[in-house]
UniProtKB/TrEMBL annotation:
Residue runs in coiled coils: none
Keyword Membrane: no
SUPFAM superfamilies for this protein: PLP-dependent transferases
Stored InterPro entries: Aminotrans_3 (IPR005814), Aminotrans_3_PPA_site (IPR049704), PyrdxlP-dep_Trfase (IPR015424), PyrdxlP-dep_Trfase_major (IPR015421), PyrdxlP-dep_Trfase_small (IPR015422)
Keywords assigned by UniProt, alphabetized: Aminotransferase, Pyridoxal phosphate, Transferase
Entry keyword annotation includes 4Fe-4S: no
Cofactor section: pyridoxal 5'-phosphate
GO CC terms in record: cytosol
Protein name: Aspartate aminotransferase family protein
CDD domains on file: OAT_like
Organism of origin: Chelativorans petroleitrophicus
Length: 439
């Protein structure tokens, strides 16, 4: 008996009652290795004593103060930390409660920027197919996952989509990675010219595509070219680092590895590590200045933005990551995870691609390795993999994404940054058994 409308109405969910480090426990005392951090959220694992202590201290001082009346100490401290660590040009932070809200706010900020600048005719958003930016209507409009969008299409705002940078599927045998990256980026320029350069607000992209494609990193040079194209036409670059940001790829921001800085960047999951719901938009100085010298306010706002408890938890999470040099562990364990995945699945008949960055890795499952033909969606392979993994005490994030309009399958791995080698080995062993049992 349940009074909750769960994500899946049919079937039973175990009841989570505890967690410690990389593990979660259910009411039967069964332990699950959290190899996906839920949905790439739990970057510090569970029940970290320093974060719990920081939350207790904040709860005893002040749980909530509405942001139209007050700012708060943890919010100011967290914003300062984020801006100081952010890519070049970022000057301010706008807090929200999660990833969809962050993308939604970034889209509105980008539009208002052009209104403030006297260019109200700019109205188009360009994004990519096979991307996920959240489930609220604006963010869903930007996203390219057809399965998620389909029935809501009449409610969505008009958004234009180009192909993602997806080497496994789209790089031609006769071109190298660099040439492919330039060809993929050219689609943006073509789309801007087609729409009219002075009508485009922004281009939105996940640096490493998460839930919809399974940890697909760009080829080298792709984002540099994207940045150049945006600059050429005065189009803002919004990066969605909700899933791939905050250290998950081995650097605090994934885009650092592409050598570019965005105008707006959305962050969430790893920011609070699941200890509290929190997200943020980091914005460039010129956007802040346009608001400051123009209307004097950003026409947006949520009741829980800058929530002191959420900011205190996120501040503690970020302090622990820095103090314990956990990004070094992300890089080291990421390399180990990649090597173990290669060893186990490198010749697997149904694993077409192994890719990712840092502790953000994906496997693409295919019916035929030679032709890259996806499995029949009716098989619901991703659901079977998840079930088999859970039966073996393993949490992974298998999804049925969209491949060129068809449904495909991938498995996403995003273990906590504190993971060690023996645990990585166990994750790969259990995942191999689960995939073989599911197929
Ligand atoms: N953007 C990306 C890249 C995501 O992966 C997600 C969630 O998976 C979101 C946005 C939406 O975040 P939330 O579920 O916190 O609203």
């Amino acid at each position: 008996m349940t009074y909750i409308l769960h994500r899946q109405i049919h079937g039973e969910l175990p009841v989570a009652v505890g967690g410690r480090g990389v593990e979660l426990f259910d009411t039967n005392g069964k332990a699950y290795i959290d190899a996906s951090g839920g949905a790439a959220v739990s970057c510090l694992g569970h029940n970290h004593p320093d974060v719990v202590e920081a939350m207790k201290r904040q709860a005893e001082k002040l749980a909530y103060a509405h942001t139209s009346f007050f700012t708060s100490e943890p919010a100011e401290a967290l914003a300062e930390r984020l801006v100081k660590a952010a890519p070049k040009g970022i000057s301010h932070t706008y807090f929200v409660s999660g990833g969809s809200e962050a993308v939604e706010a970034a889209l509105k900020m980008a539009r208002q920027y052009f209104v403030e600048m006297g260019e109200p005719q700019r109205r188009h958003i360009i994004a990519r197919r096979q991307s996920y930016h959240g489930n609220t209507l604006g963010a869903l409009s930007a996203g390219g996952n057809e399965w998620r969008r389909d029935q809501f299409r009449p409610l969505l705002i008009e958004t234009h989509h180009i192909d993602p940078c997806y080497a496994y599927r789209h790089q031609r045998p006769d071109e190298n990675a660099e040439a492919y990256g330039l060809r993929a980026a050219q689609q943006l320029e073509d789309k801007i010219l087609e729409l009219g350069p002075d009508t485009v607000i922004a281009f939105v992209a996940e640096p490493v595509v998460g839930a919809t494609a399974g940890a697909v990193p760009p080829v080298s040079g792709y984002f540099k070219r994207i940045r150049e194209i945006c600059d050429r036409y005065g189009v803002l670059l919004i990066l969605d680092e909700v899933m791939c940001g905050m250290g998950r790829t081995g650097t605090l921001f994934a885009c650092e590895q592409d050598g570019i800085a965005p105008d707006l960047v959305a962050i969430a999951k790893g920011l609070g590590g699941g200890y509290q719901p929190i997200g943020a938009v980091l914005l460039a100085r010129r956007i802040y200045d346009a608001f400051a010298n123009g209307s004097g306010f950003f026409q947006h706002g949520h009741t829980y933005m800058g929530h002191p408890m959420a900011c205190a938890a996120a501040l503690a999470v970020q302090e622990v990551i820095e103090r314990d040099d956990l990004l070094a562990n992300v890089r080291e364990m990421g390399a180990h995870l990649r090597a173990r995945l290669q060893a186990r699945f490198g010749n697997h008949p149904h694993v077409g691609d192994i890719r990712g960055r840092g502790l953000f890795m994906g496997l693409e499952l295919v019916a035929d390795r030679g032709t890259k033909e996806p499995f029949d969606p009716a098989l619901k392979l991703h659901a079977k993999v998840k079930k088999e993994a859970m039966a073996r005490g393993l949490m992974v994030y298998p999804m049925g994404g969209t491949i060129d309009g068809r449904r495909g399958n991938h498995v996403l791995l995003a273990p906590p940054f504190i993971v060690d080698k023996p645990t990585v080995d166990t994750i790969v062993e259990r995942l191999g058994d689960a995939i073989d049992a599911a197929i």
